[in-house]
Amino acid sequence: MSGSIASYDQLVRQGEALKKENSHLRRELEDNSNHLSKLENETSDMKEVLKHLQGKLEQEARVMVSSGQTEVLDQLKALQMDITSLYNLKFAPEVMSTGRGAEESPPAPAPHRDGPGELGRATFRMLEELDRER
Questions:
Q1: Which residues are the signal sequence here (predicted)?
Q2: Which are the contacts of 77, defined by CB distance < 8 A and separation ≥ 6?
Q3: Cβ atoms within 10 Å of 108's Cβ, excluding its own
Q4: Tag placement on the chain: N or C end, fewer CB within 10 Å?
Q5: How far apart are CA 50 and CA 63, in angstroms?
């Protein structure tokens, strides 16, 4: 009979340990969820700022093209490539480390979609043409 009491006490201790571990895991999951939400909000804010900046740059590029200031456009082209490279270096490893593979990544924008992305590609093509003409 003392063996069954010992087994019961052992099961109670294991149950309490499991409850503690469960509570700990719930807290950790909640913390991770809060952190992910914060990162998503920051990413969304950064995307809005980048869209705004891209719009300003594209507008400035159109003014420069119409006034013939191609040397500054070359600098902007290089800056755009640097920013893209920096973004890919900074954020691609983070996306992979969060367990989000390519299948979970947002889809690439449609090639003929009207919007800031299309203007950016058009500006980039225009800059390349100007560079070739030189």
A1: none
A2: 124, 127, 128, 131
A3: 7
A4: N
A5: 20
